[in-house]
Amino acid sequence: MRSGYGWLHQNFRGGGPPPTLPRRYIINIFTTQRGHLSAEDVFTKVQKLYPRTGFATVYRTLDLLRREGILRRFEFGDGRARYELADQNFHHHHLVCRQCGRIINYSDFTKEEEELFRRIEKALKKKYDFAIDSHQLHFYGLCARCQKSKKEEL
Ligand SMILES: [Zn+2]
Ligand SMILES: [Zn+2]
Ligand SMILES: [Zn+2]
Questions:
Q1: Which ligand is nearest the CA of 83, by number?
Q2: What sections of 3-135 are H helices per DSSP?
């Protein structure tokens, strides 16, 4: 007899969670936190609920979600790539602290900023005949907290 939940039993037969669950769970991690997470960060979170999931699975899933355009991958120069939700409705730039690795999103652009980026994109399009559809911008430096601790050291 085939019950309506037959597929569920089939998926669970391997002993692990159904293959689609970590994927959905990973997307959920990003939607609830709006964070910039490394593969290690995501792995730690997944492990709490799905201890059987290996790092390779998490990494593969992140890469798949990136290729599907659901996640964006950033290299911030510290050797640990970060991922975040690729939400078109939340265009923002990054302030990256070189010391503590904190990443601040900002989207409260001034009129001058928006005007400047429009002008830059227009100029680039003309110069390289390149149809720009998006951009990413990261500023590097020290966050307020790290500037303070640096001063206290002196
Ligand atoms: Zn921008
Ligand atoms: Zn900092
Ligand atoms: Zn961000």
A1: 3
A2: 6-12, 21-33, 39-49, 55-67, 111-128
